[in-house]
Every structure is written in structure tokens, then in C-alpha cells.
Predict the structure.
Amino acid sequence: MPTADQLIAGCREGDELAWEALVRRYQGRVFGVAIHYLRDREEARDVAQEVFVKVYRSLDSVREGDTFLAWLLRLTRNQSIDRLRRLTARRTDRAVPVEEAAQLPDPAPGPESDGLGGERRRLLYRALGQLSPLNREMILLKDIQELKLVEIADLLDVPVGTVKTRSHRARLELAQAIRSLGAATSGGGGAA
């Protein structure tokens, strides 16, 4: 399997198969980030398409090496946030605040939920919906997208130590939300 650098080099040379392979390799991750921000499959698809159009138009300046994925996800994050702002401005009567957007159910499973069973997946999504936006983003980037701490620090433009602290707090908040939802679901109010 060719590396991202090899695919980018092929794209720069006009190799359509290299472009197709690059899109296929990263489209799930781009869509996964977009859906977490937008909570709407069609909007997330539109953002993913916009991201790949921007990548294609800027092939000569696309980052290579280990930073490509972080760069691509930063671009996706920024596009998603821009789309949220435009949607909020356009649909003020139906707009959903970002804090509440994570509580909206998505009936179809996302690419990050392949290994989870139905009940556990629903519990996890409900728990993620209870997290603060900052902690939800940290879980998305570190645990779902599996970015390295350095990549997350670069993407969010914060020190690595801050990423470590935020990651730890996010995991604690997620564990607490899962415990409380699990206790509520099982009907017991006892300690876990």
C-alpha cells in the first residue's frame, strides 16, 4: 500500500488513481470529524467534499509526512466550524446551539462505531452528548481519530501539556457520564 507521501506525489503528477486512492484512504476520517461537529450526514458529506476540493486545489502546498493527517483534520475541523456558523446565521429560527448539537441522535452508525454493539454504542453516544464541547472534541481527536498528542497540539494550537491535561479530563468526564447513564439505564442508583 502506498504511503500518503507517495499518493500526494502521484497526485501532483496528475495520476488520477493516486487521487482516488488518497480520497478513499482519508474520506472516512474526514467524514467522521465533520459529522461530530455538524450532526447532520448531508452537511458532513458536503464539508468532506469541500475539504477534498481544497486539498486538490492546493496539492502543491499540501503538507507531507506525519503532519498530513493532522493538517487534513484541522482543515476538516475548520470547514465544519465555518459551516456551523453559516447554518446558524441562515437558520436562526431552527438553529441548534453547538452545545446541544451533540445531543441530537444520528440514526446511522458512524465509521468510528464499527466495533461497538448496539446498546453499548447508544450508551457511548448518549455519554458523548453530555460532555462539554471541549472534552467531546478531545475524545474525538485522540480516541476516535487516534491522533498523537503532538498532532492534536498542532491542530488546536496549544502546548502538548495542555492536550494531555484536556485528554485526561475528557476521559474522566466520559467515564462519569457512562457510569451515570449506565446506572440510570439499569434502574439502579447505586455506585459503580
